[in-house]
Specification:
- By secondary structure, the protein is α+β, with helices and mostly antiparallel strands.
- It contains 1 helix and 6 strands, in the order H-E-E-E-E-E-E.
- Helices cover 21% and strands 35% of the residues.
- The protein is globular and about 25 Å long.
């Protein structure tokens, strides 16, 4: 039983490290078109986290599969890698 508990603890620590990547000021984000995770506030004051790309002189996120929106993010972190997203 102790070995099983240790495995679960190790797994949660590893996942926690990936999920808790440090956020950085948006001014330091790459503007080469690469995808990053950004936080931004909508018109209702709700803070959102989305995958975004810098292009056309601004940060753009997809609201749904057909709609892009220009946002003013406050921070960023590397996007989680997703092989299906290429």
């Amino acid at each position: 039983m102790q070995a099983a508990a240790f495995c679960r603890l190790s797994l949660s620590v590893q996942l926690g490290d990936d999920d808790m990547a440090d956020r950085k000021p948006i001014a330091t984000a790459p503007t080469d078109g690469s995808k990053v995770s950004v936080t931004w506030k909508d018109s209702d004051g709700v803070i959102n986290e989305s995958i975004a790309q810098y292009r056309d002189d601004g940060w753009w996120v997809y609201i749904d599969s057909h709609t892009r929106k220009k946002v003013e993010p406050t921070s960023w972190r590397p996007a989680a890698s997703d092989d299906d997203d290429q």
